[in-house]
Structures are given as structure tokens and as C-alpha cells.
Write a structure and sequence with these properties.
heterodimer, A: mainly alpha, 3 helices, elongated, B: mainly alpha, 79% helix
Chain lengths: 87, 496
């Protein structure tokens, strides 16, 4: 029923206040920090690794993390622009 | 398009009706508030479908009597058989309950809806129900505005009950006022013609309002103010039962095969119950009179008698159908079949050995073995990664690590398919063999993807906001596809 959608939208509207948005930004920052640490660990591991297969595996992981971090930074930028909050 | 025209006509008629009579306005508003209350109640209970209800369902549906009781109790509590049916369908689709258990829940839900009639006739019409609605609404809305999920759910449920009460109150007032100006009972049709006509009317009303509860409410309040004859009210109740089935069928059109089977079971049950109720109407009325006398219901208290009738014919339906539940499930499984899979099962490897010379077979075997080994290795890597996420060790400590597994799976799937294409091109294997092998790779790929998808659900962080953040950073299908296609094997990009 259409009203159901309306009802859930109303609930969303009531809860998506400024504080919730700020919490969302905070969570994304926390995940980005975690990814950065993981990236650093993997780089250290890569330096000490001689096995080409394992190196390729680590390299692939690093590329995924890079893509995720790029995405996260873009999301964060978008959220800040929308809310007009200081960086 | 026709749906829109119908809606427009219905709205125009309704507008005319509302303009014509203030009493009708009150009745219509009552129905609207009642329906909105049901939606709010459903919304409230949905909050608890994230765990509690599922645990309950899992533990209480291993026997037929348990699933029957589950349907009965939950529908009584939620006053919505449609929500219970939806939960049953979703559990059936997920393979957590069998069709027999699903049918049991639907039967139980049908019995559970009969409590609604008792609630309206026994409570709603006897006390000033509007007075109960007010505090419920006040507390409900306050809780609704809370951020905490459970409180919000309770808020929705309380608001729902409050609105239901308010709807009943408006309807009662409307019909009482209506009584003075118009006598709808004079339009009553006696005999079999009336029975069939009012059954149809009840079905149509339920279809329009999408709720048998609302039809029963209108029927009972109309009966209480003598706007409809007792005989016709019984037919309306039978029609309401049929109408709710049609809603389920419309709902199952987009559902999977299990949903369709369950909807078919629902239809068969309600159709059978309606036919029995129509055929045995005289005997049922006699039983209602007899039981009413024993229960202390006054002979002229037609609203309670209607509630008793509604319960009796649903109970009769359940009693008639329960012995055949297993047979019904088997019949439905036979009649409504799962469409055959579009891909063939692997079966050409042995035939291939007969078709090509021994040396060639050996070469192919080696080539394929190499691809299979890498596939096996990939599945092993995924299992290791999932186990690391589950135990929180190693560098795969978040569900984001699974994006890498998705990309690797995609790459290996593509590589094997390319290798197989090369084998076909070189005429080393037949197209049939290649199809079979590609299917095998497809199965392995899907097993890997399902494992990864399940791990993403199972091992997501418990904290909601963090989970949302991780999910928003996870790569989507297009991004994964892009990375699979990347041939770049050089140095990884620098950190930001």
C-alpha cells in the first residue's frame, strides 16, 4: 500500500536530523581511519615479501583499499557540502 | 492505466458521497482512520521482525499444531493476518520453514482474524472506545518520535491501536446518526440471492479496503445500528473472508514459487470455507443460537452472534482442512512447479572421453585441471578470508575486505571462460563439453559469491552507523566490474 511508503518516509524524515548526519560523517571517518591503518600494514608486508604470488595478492588488496578510500573521501566531501559544515 | 481510471472514479464517487452526507463523512473517516491504524500497527510490529519474531517462528513451527498456534496467536496480537502471511511467505522463500508449516500458519492466521470481530462486537461497541484512544495516541506519538528503535516500534503499535479505536468510534457515531435519516436495512435482500449478493459485496469491500477487518468493522457497526439485516451481515462476513484471499493472491503475483503456492493454499482454504459456510448456513446459524445461549449471549445480540458465526465457520474450515494439509502441500508442489533451470547439469565429460583420442583427452584434462585447481584455491582463499573476518584476526577484519574476494572471483571466472573459449576455438573440446564446463565454473563462481554475500550480512559490525558507513564504502557491482577489467598489474596507487 502506498501509505506504508509514506509512513516509512515520515519516520525517516523525523529521524534524519543534523545530529544523525554528523554521526554518519563520524562513522565514515572511523572506517577510513581503519582502512588507512590497514593500507599501511599491507605496505609494510609488501616490502618484506619476496614471493611474487603473495606480492600480487597484497597488491590486489591495496588496490581495493585505494578504491574504497577514494569512494569514502568523495562521500565525505559530498556530505560536508550538503550540510555546509566546516571541514 | 485502467487502475488509475478506477481510482479516479472511486475518488469522484467518494467526493460526491462526502458532499452529500455528513454522516457518511464520519463513517468514511472512521474507515480511513481504522485502516491507517492498521498500517501503523503493522509498521510497529515490523520493528520487532528483525529477530524476536523470527526466533519465535523458527522455534514454533516444527509441528503443524505449533504453526497453527503461531498463526493464531500472532494474528490475534497484531490484528493483521496480512503481516503474518508476509512473514510466513518470506520464511518459506528463505527455506527456513516448509510449505506444510506455512499452510499451518495461514490457517492459524485465519482463525486469529476472528478475534477482531470479537474485539469490535464485544468491546468496541459496548464502551466509549474513543476515550481509550486518546491516551494511547498521546503516548504512542511521543514514543514514535524517539530515536531508539524499540521505543519507536512501541510508539507505532500504540498509535496504531489508538487509531483503530478512534476509527471504530467514528464509525459507531456515524452509523448511529445515519440511523435517524436513512434505513439501509430496507435494501436488504432475503434468501439465497441475498446471500450470494452480500457475499460478493463483502468480497468487493475487502478488495477495495484491502482489509477484512475493516469490512467486518463496517458490517458489525452497521448491524449494531440495524442498517443491515443479520442474515445479510453473515453473508458480508463470508465475503470478507474471501476478499482477503484475493488480496493475498494479488500480493503473491510478484512473489516466488513458494509464495504462489502459499497463496494458492490460502485461496483453496478460504474458498472451501466460504462454500461450506454458504451450504451449511442454516446449520451454522442453529449452532450459533445454541452456543450463544450457553455462552450467555442474548438472543437479540446480533453483533456478538456475528462474531461467533465468523469464528465458527473459520474453525469449521480449519477442522475440515487440517487432516489434509500434507496432501494439500504435495498437491500444490505438483501443480505449481519450479521452472527448470536454464543451464544443463554437467554430463559431457565421460562422453568426451569416448569422442576424442586418448592423448587429446589427457591434454584437455591437464588444462582443465589447472583451471579447476585455481578455482578451488580461490574458494579456499575466500573461506580463509571469511574465517579471519569471523574471528577478527589478520588484515581481513572488516567486511570491506570481501570486495577483494569479489574481484578475484570475477577475474578467475573470466580467465577460465577465456581458456575454455580457446579450447573450443582450437577444436580441442566440443561446444557441448565447453557448455558443461562453463556451467561448472558458473556454479563455483556463484558459490563463492553467495559465501561472500552471506559473510557480508553475517559478519557486519553490530553498530548500525558503522555498518552503514562500511556499506557505503563497499564497492558496488559497477565498480567491481571496472576493477575486474583492469589489466593494470604494476605498482599500486599511492595512499591519499
Amino acid at each position: 500500500m502506498k501509505t506504508k511508503k509514506l509512513l516509512s518516509k515520515m519516520a525517516d524524515f523525523l529521524s534524519s536530523d543534523r545530529r544523525a548526519q554528523q554521526e554518519h560523517v563520524g562513522s565514515i571517518k572511523a572506517v577510513l581511519k581503519k582502512l588507512k591503518k590497514k593500507e599501511r600494514d599491507l605496505r609494510d608486508k609488501l616490502e618484506g615479501e619476496r614471493d611474487p604470488e603473495k606480492r600480487a595478492e597484497i597488491d590486489a588488496k591495496l588496490r581495493v583499499i585505494y578504491a574504497q578510500r577514494t569512494k569514502g573521501v568523495a562521500i565525505l566531501k559530498g556530505l560536508r557540502n550538503n550540510s555546509g559544515a566546516p571541514g | 492505466m485502467s487502475g488509475r481510471i478506477l481510482l479516479f472514479v472511486a475518488l469522484a464517487l467518494l467526493t460526491y458521497g462526502l458532499w452529500l452526507s455528513a454522516d457518511f463523512q464520519q463513517i468514511a473517516a472512521g474507515v480511513a482512520v481504522f485502516l491507517f491504524g492498521m498500517l501503523a500497527l503493522e509498521e510497529g510490529f515490523k520493528t520487532f521482525t528483525g529477530g524476536t519474531l523470527e526466533d519465535l517462528l523458527r522455534g514454533t513451527t516444527d509441528r503443524l499444531w505449533k504453526s497453527l498456534s503461531f498463526g493464531l496467536v500472532t494474528t490475534t496480537l497484531m490484528q493483521s493476518s496480512s503481516l503474518v502471511s508476509v512473514i510466513a511467505i518470506s520464511f518459506l522463500s528463505a527455506g527456513l520453514i516448509g510449505l506444510t508449516a506455512g499452510i499451518g500458519i495461514i490457517f492459524g492466521a485465519n482463525l486469529g482474524t476472528t478475534t477482531g470481530a470479537w474485539l469490535i462486537a464485544g468491546f468496541g461497541l459496548r464502551v466509549n472506545i474513543g476515550a481509550y484512544a486518546m491516551p494511547l495516541l498521546v503516548f504512542g506519538v511521543i514514543l514514535l518520535l524517539q530515536r531508539h528503535r524499540t521505543l519507536k516500534g512501541i510508539g507505532y503499535a500504540l498509535t496504531g491501536v489508538g487509531l483503530l479505536f478512534l476509527g471504530i468510534h467514528y464509525m459507531k457515531e456515524g452509523f448511529d446518526a445515519f440511523k435517524g435519516s436513512v434505513d439501509l436495512a430496507s435494501y436488504g435482500v432475503p434468501g439465497l440471492r441475498g446471500l450470494l449478493l452480500f457475499t460478493l459485496l463483502g468480497t468487493a469491500a475487502t478488495l477495495i479496503m484491502q482489509s477484512s477487518h475493516a469490512t467486518l468493522l463496517v458490517t458489525i457497526t452497521a448491524l449494531a445500528s440495524h442498517q443491515v439485516t443479520y442474515e445479510n451481515a453473515l453473508a458480508l462476513a463470508i465475503g470478507a473472508n474471501l476478499g482477503t484471499t484475493i488480496t493475498a493472491i494479488i500480493g503473491s503475483m510478484g512473489a516466488n514459487i513458494d509464495g504462489k503456492r502459499l497463496a494458492a493454499a490460502h485461496l483453496l482454504f478460504n474458498l472451501m470455507t466460504a462454500v461450506v459456510a454458504i451450504l451449511l448456513l442454516r446449520q451454522l446459524r442453529w449452532s450459533v443460537d445454541l452456543l450463544s445461549a450457553q455462552l450467555g449471549i442474548a438472543p437479540a445480540d446480533y453483533t456478538l452472534k456475528l462474531a461467533l458465526f465468523h469464528t465458527l465457520f473459520n474453525l469449521l474450515g480449519v477442522m475440515l482442512m487440517v487432516p489434509f494439509v500434507d496432501r494439500l502441500a504435495r498437491l500444490l508442489e505438483r501443480v505449481i512447479k519450479v521452472p527448470e533451470a536454464a543451464i544443463d547439469a554437467p554430463r559431457y565429460i565421460n562422453e568426451a572421453a569416448l569422442e576424442v583420442p586418448a592423448a587429446a583427452v589427457e591434454a584437455i584434462r591437464k588444462e582443465i585441471r589447472r583451471q579447476y585447481d585455481s578455482l578451488r584455491l580461490e574458494l579456499a582463499i575466500i573461506l580463509r578470508e571469511i574465517s579471519e573476518i569471523a574471528s577478527g584476526i589478520g588484515d581481513a577484519d572488516t567486511i570491506l575486505s570481501l570486495d577483494g574476494a569479489k574481484i578475484r572471483l570475477g577475474q578467475i571466472d573470466r580467465r577460465i571462460n577465456l581458456a575454455l573459449t580457446r579450447l573450443i576455438r582450437d577444436k580441442r573440446i566440443t561446444a557441448y563439453m565447453a557448455t558443461s564446463l562453463m556451467n561448472d565454473c558458473g556454479y563455483a563462481y556463484r558459490i563463492g559469491r553467495y559465501l561472500v554475500d552471506m559473510a557480508q550480512i553475517l559478519f557486519a559490525v553490530r553498530e548500525r552507523r558503522l555498518k552503514e558507513a562500511e556499506q557505503s564504502l563497499a564497492l558496488d557491482e559497477a565498480e567491481i566490474e571496472k576493477m575486474i577489467n583492469q589489466r593494470h598489474r604494476g605498482r599500486s596507487p599511492g595512499a591519499k
